[in-house]
Amino acid sequence: MKILLTGADGQLGQALSASLPAEVELIATARKQLDLSDPQSCRSAVHAHRPDWVLNAGAYTAVDKAESEPEQAMAVNAGAPRAFAEALSVTGGRLLQISTDFVFNGCQGHPYEPVHSPDPLGVYGATKTAGEQAVDEILGCSDEGRATILRTGWVYGPVGQNFLFTMLRLHRLKAEVGESLNVVADQVGCPTSTSGLAAACWAVIKLQVMGMQHWSDAGVASWYDFAVAIGELAAARGLLSKAAQVLPITTADFPTQAKRPAYALLASSRTREQLQLRPQHWRSSLEEVINRVEA
Question: pTM value?
Answer without folding.
Answer: 0.96
